[in-house]
Amino acid sequence: MDCIFCKIANGEIPATKVYEDDTVVAFNDLEPQAPTHILVIPKAHISSAADVNEENSAVISHIFEVIAKLSKELDMTNGFRVVNNCGEDGGQTVKHIHFHLMSGRKFTWPAG
Ligand code: 5GP
Ligand code: ZN
């Protein structure tokens, strides 16, 4: 499958990885929108949040364990934002589910 995040997960495309285990990998976003901007993905391909189901959802809760761990390790004591873009209107550009973990500035709500 021609998926850049599958290729990052299996090492075919380089990325600056900040965390990796059997099922999850986290790496720096190529175009950071905050001083810290990490993408956390499952190694197994799930296209989007609309494709999470009973069979594959365990890795999604594990992703949130990894996010909590990274937030402590990277000293995000002032807070952070987790974003998942889903589908065209959601602004998803890479069709492999990913969670943006951003910190180091104050975020506005709604939007950026
Ligand atoms: P989306 O818009 O789908 O929510 O987010 C995709 C994110 O992937 C963007 O923030 C974009 O900068 C990042 N991205 C796209 N291609 C690459 C790549 O090859 N390497 C890395 N590290 N990030 C990428
Ligand atoms: Zn993929």
CA radius of gyration is 14 Å
Helix share, percent: 10-25%
Number of strands: 5
Q: Which descriptor suits the 3D outline?
A: globular
Helical/strand content category: alpha+beta
Ions, cofactors and other ligands present here are: guanosine-5'-monophosphate, zinc ion
Strand order of the largest sheet: 1-2-3-5-4
Largest sheet: 5 strands, antiparallel
Tally of helical segments: 3
The proportion of residues in beta strands is: 15-25%
- What is the string of SSEs from the N terminus onward? HEEEHEHE
How far do the termini sit from each other? 32 Å
Mean pLDDT: 97
Task: List low-confidence stretches.
Answer: none
Explain this structure to me?
- There is one protein chain.
- By secondary structure, this protein is of the alpha+beta class.
- It is built from three helices and five strands; from the N terminus they run H-E-E-E-H-E-H-E.
- It has helices spanning 4-9, 58-73, 87-90; strands at 17-20, 24-28, 36-42, 81-83, 99-103.
- A five-stranded antiparallel β-sheet has the order 1-2-3-5-4, covered by helices on one side.
- A hairpin with a 3-residue loop joins strand 1 and strand 2 (24-28).
- The longest helix is centred in the middle third of the chain and has 16 residues, at 58-73.
- The N and C termini lie far apart (32 Å).
- The site of guanosine-5'-monophosphate has 14 residues, from strand 2.
